[in-house]
Amino acid sequence: MSAITRWVEYAADAAGIAGTGGGTQEGVGTRGYSLATGATDKSKFQIGAGNNRLHLGINGDSAYITLASGIDLDPRFIAKDVSEKLHNLGKNDPSYDQSQCVWENNRLKLYSGSLGSSSSVTITSGTNTAHTELGWGSKTEVGGTNNNPATGSLNQYNGGLTVSGTYSGFFDEVYTVVIHNGWTINTPVKGGSNSYTGTISTGGIFNHTSDITYTIYTDTTNGTTMGGGSGNVPKMSWISTGNADNSGQDVELLYPNYWYKLGTKGTMVKFTDAVFSHNQSPNSAWTIDCVFPQTTHGSNSQGSDGDARYVWGSTRGDDSGNNPIVTSNSSFTQLGSRGLYIKATGSNMYKAGDQFKIVCTPPQPKSYDITNLNYGNVTVSTEAPVKSVIFEIISGAIEMSTVKFGLQGHGSFEHHNENNSDTYFRFGTVGPGQPGGSSPIDGLEWHADIQSSAIANDIPPTYLHATKANLSVVSDADDSEVIGSSSFMGMVSDPIFLNIKLGASEVGANSTINYRIFFDYS
Question: Does the pLDDT at position 185 exceed 70?
Answer without folding.
Answer: yes
